[in-house]
Design a protein that fits this description.
Layout lengths: L5 E5 L1 H20 L7 E13 L2 E18 L4 E7 L4 E26 L5 E31 L2 E19 L9 H20 L4 H13 L11 E3 L3 E7 L6 E5 L3 E3 L2 E2 L19 E6 H13 L4 E4 L21 H6 L5 E7 L4 E10 L1 H5 L7 H7 L5 E3 L2 H12 L1 H15 E19 L2 E24 L2 E10 L5 E6 L11 H22 L1 E2 L6 E3 L5 E5 L2 E6 L1 E3 L3 H8 L1 H5 L22
Helix pairs in contact: 1-3, 8-9
Length: 591
C-alpha cells in the first residue's frame, strides 16, 4: 500500500524560529559545557641569571595546560542559511570570553661555575592559574535534515571555529615570565592556547542534542495507549522547495494495537506550498479521518445505552408513549413499562471531503447586504441546513423564498453556501428493550443511516498529543431507518427516524463526539506547540488545509493553559457559526 495521508511544509520563518528559539538556546547551553583540550608546550631551556660567578637556567621546560574551561562564553545566533539538498549552515558569535586552564610547569634547575663545571640543583614542579582572553569566536555549524533508516534527523556534518584577539595572561611567577624571555614565549603560548580553543569538539554535544529532538516525532502520533498515528516518510519523501523551506509527506496511517487501518483508495496527498505568513502548512486527508474513526470503532467506543435517565424526555423510553400509535402492539404486549436501547456502529463512520451546500448562520450573514431585506428574512428559516446536492438545495430555496425569488437569487446564495465540507455517513444498529423485573427483553431491532457534517475545526490537545479536532453536526433530514425484526406479533415495520433523531441519537452522539475531541494527530517535534487560536483551517476536496504557527513551550502547565485559549477568550466563539435547529442536540450531549 502506497500511502501519503498527511503532508507538511515548513517556511523559512518556521525554520528560523525553530533554530533561534530552541536549537540555538540548547546548543549554547551544550557548548558552555565543553572543555578546551589539554595542551603541552615545550619551551626548551630558559636562562635565569648570568654573572661572573656563573649562570643558572631552567632546562627542558615543559608547560602542561589542563582542566580547561570557558567563562563569559555566551554565543549568540547570527544567521541560518539553507543550502542545497537540506544542508543548513548555522553561525554563532561569542565575544569577550576567557579560557582558563591549570598551568603546570616542570623543569630541571642547573647552574654553572667559572671553571666550566655544571650541576643540576633540583627539579621544579609548579601550578598556577592561567587564563587567556579572546575578543571574538565565530562558530559555524553545518548539518543536513534527512530521513534515514526510518528516523527523522538533523545529521551533523561539521563545525568550524575561528578565534581572534587572543590575550594570554602568563602567570606572574612562571619561569617563562622572565623579562628577557616573555616576549617570544608569549606568542608561542598564545598560539598553543588558541589552537586548544579552535579545536574544541562541538560535534558530540550538538549531535547528542539534536538526535532526541527528531526522535520525538513518532511519539507525537500516540493518541491513546492503543491508537497511534504513524509518521514514516511517504512517497514524496523529504524535499526542499527552491532551497527555501522544507516539505515532506508522511503516511499518516493509524494503527490499533499494532494493526494498521487498511481502507480503500489510500491517497498520495500532494505537498502543500511553503507558507508565506505561517510557520507550518499541513494537509490532512479524509483517509486519516476515516482511519481515526476505524480505530475508535475497533476500540469499542462506538456503543451506547439509552435509558430514561440519560435522554431529554424520559417518557420517550416508556411503552406508554406508543399507545394509540403504529406501535400499539408494543404497548399491548408490555403496557407502561420502561425501555432501554442498545446502540452500536455496524461499521466505522465514513468521511468524505466534498462540496456541499451549507447555510450556516455565518454564511447567511454574508448575504445581508446582497439580498432585499424581505428575502434575507425569509432565508433565515434555512439557517443551519446542509444539502448534499444542488437539486435538494434549490428545492428548499423554493420552499423558503418562493419560486421567483429562489430563481432570481439562487446564484448569489449559492456563492456563499457552496463549500467543501467533511460529510460523515454512519451505519448503526439499535435494539429496543423492555425492562421487565430488571431484565431487558429485546422487542424491536432497526438499523440507522445518518449523515453528519464535520464543523468547528480547531487545533488542540488530546492527552499529550496535539491534534486537528472537530465536531459533528447531524443533518436530520437525511436520517433514514430500516426495520429489522421484532418478536412481538403485529410489529412488522415502522419509521423509527423520529425516535432516533430526538431520543436516541443525542445519547449515541456523546460517544461519537469523542472521536472529534481526540482528533487527527499532526507530526511535530516535542516542545513545539501549535498556537491553537491562531490557526486557519479550511476544507478542500479530499483534505483539510491547516495553517499554523508554533510556540516553544517547556512547562506542561503552560501547555495546558494554551489548550484552553479558545474557551478562555470566548466560550461560544468556536461554536457560534454552527448554532442551528439541527445543532441543538449539542446542548443535550449529541453530536
Amino acid at each position: 500500500m502506497s500511502l501519503q495521508g498527511i503532508t507538511v511544509a515548513i517556511s523559512p520563518s518556521g525554520i528560523q524560529y525553530f533554530t533561534n528559539v530552541l536549537l540555538v538556546n540548547e546548543i549554547v547551553a551544550a557548548l558552555q559545557k565543553v572543555r578546551p583540550a589539554s595542551k603541552t608546550i615545550y619551551a626548551g631551556d630558559i636562562t635565569i641569571s648570568v654573572g661572573k660567578g656563573g649562570s643558572t637556567w631552567a632546562g627542558n621546560v615543559v608547560i602542561a595546560l589542563s582542566s580547561g574551561s570557558m567563562s563569559s562564553f555566551t554565543p549568540t545566533f547570527q544567521s541560518l542559511t539553507q543550502g542545497d539538498n537540506g544542508q543548513f549552515t548555522l553561525t554563532l558569535l561569542a565575544t569577550n570570553f576567557q579560557a582558563t586552564f591549570n598551568w603546570n610547569e616542570q623543569y630541571d634547575n642547573y647552574e654553572s661555575h667559572p671553571n666550566g663545571g655544571t650541576r643540576m640543583t633540583g627539579h621544579s614542579n609548579d601550578n598556577y592559574p592561567y587564563s587567556v582572553g579572546f575578543s571574538q569566536m565565530t562558530i559555524t555549524v553545518v548539518f543536513r535534515f534527512v530521513f534515514s533508516n526510518n528516523d527523522w534527523a538533523f545529521n551533523f556534518i561539521s563545525a568550524a571555529v575561528h578565534t581572534t584577539g587572543v590575550s594570554p595572561n602568563i602567570p606572574s611567577n612562571s619561569i617563562v615570565g622572565l623579562e628577557e624571555y616573555a616576549g617570544c614565549f608569549s606568542s608561542q603560548v598564545s598560539a598553543a592556547t588558541k589552537q586548544a580553543v579552535d579545536t574544541i569538539d562541538f560535534s558530540a554535544p550538538i549531535t547528542a542534542l539534536i538526535k532526541p529532538l527528531f526522535a520525538s516525532i513518532p511519539a507525537s502520533g500516540h493518541l491513546t495507549p492503543d491508537i497511534a498515528f504513524q509518521f514514516p516518510v511517504g512517497p514524496s519523501g523529504l524535499t526542499f522547495p527552491g532551497n527555501s523551506g522544507i516539505a515532506a509527506g508522511v503516511t499518516g496511517d493509524v494503527t490499533y494495537k499494532g494493526t494498521a487501518y487498511a481502507g480503500a483508495n489510500p491517497p498520495q496527498l500532494a505537498l502543500p506550498p511553503v507558507p508565506a505568513n505561517n510557520h507550518l502548512n499541513y494537509y490532512a486527508s479524509d483517509y486519516t479521518f476515516n482511519a481515526l474513526m476505524w480505530a475508535f470503532c475497533r476500540e469499542g467506543n462506538l456503543v451506547a445505552t439509552a435509558t430514561p435517565g440519560n435522554i431529554p424526555d424520559p417518557a420517550a423510553l416508556n411503552t406508554g408513549n406508543y399507545n394509540n400509535t403504529p406501535l400499539q402492539a408494543l404497548y399491548t404486549a408490555y403496557p407502561n413499562m420502561p425501555m432501554t436501547a442498545n446502540i452500536k456502529a455496524l461499521v466505522a463512520p465514513k468521511v468524505q471531503f466534498k462540496q456541499v451546500y451549507d447555510l450556516t448562520a455565518a454564511n447567511i450573514g454574508k448575504l445581508q447586504n446582497q439580498l432585499p431585506p424581505a428575502v434575507y428574512a425569509q432565508l433565515q428559516v434555512l439557517k443551519g441546513s446542509v444539502f448534499m446536492d444542488e437539486p435538494s438545495f434549490f428545492a428548499q430555496l423554493i420552499n423558503a423564498l418562493g419560486r421567483a425569488n429562489a430563481g432570481q437569487y439562487k446564484t448569489v446564495i449559492e456563492s456563499v453556501a457552496l463549500v467543501v465540507g467533511a460529510v460523515v455517513t454512519h451505519s448503526d444498529h439499535v435494539v429496543l428493550n423492555v425492562i421487565d423485573a430488571g431484565v431487558p427483553i429485546p422487542v424491536i431491532t432497526f438499523d440507522v443511516s445518518q449523515t453528519d457534517v464535520l464543523q468547528a475545526f480547531v487545533l488542540g490537545i488530546s492527552g499529550t498529543t496535539q491534534t486537528l479536532q472537530f465536531a459533528f453536526q447531524i443533518v436530520t433530514p437525511l436520517t433514514t431507518t430500516t426495520f429489522v425484526s421484532s418478536p412481538i406479533p403485529g410489529v412488522n415495520g415502522g419509521d423509527f427516524t423520529m425516535i432516533w433523531n430526538w431520543v436516541l441519537q443525542p445519547v449515541y452522539g456523546t460517544e461519537v463526539a469523542k472521536i472529534g475531541q481526540a482528533g487527527v494527530a499532526l507530526p511535530r517535534i516535542h516542545g513545539f506547540d501549535f498556537l491553537f487560536n491562531n490557526a486557519t483551517i479550511t476544507m478542500a476536496p479530499g483534505y483539510a488545509n491547516v495553517l499554523s504557527d508554533v510556540q516553544h513551550v517547556t512547562d506542561s502547565g503552560v501547555r495546558y493553559l494554551m489548550s484552553k485559549q479558545l474557551l478562555e477568550i470566548d466560550p461560544n466563539a468556536a461554536w457560534e457559526p454552527f448554532r442551528s435547529d439541527l445543532f441543538k442536540t449539542k446542548a443535550a450531549g449529541g453530536d
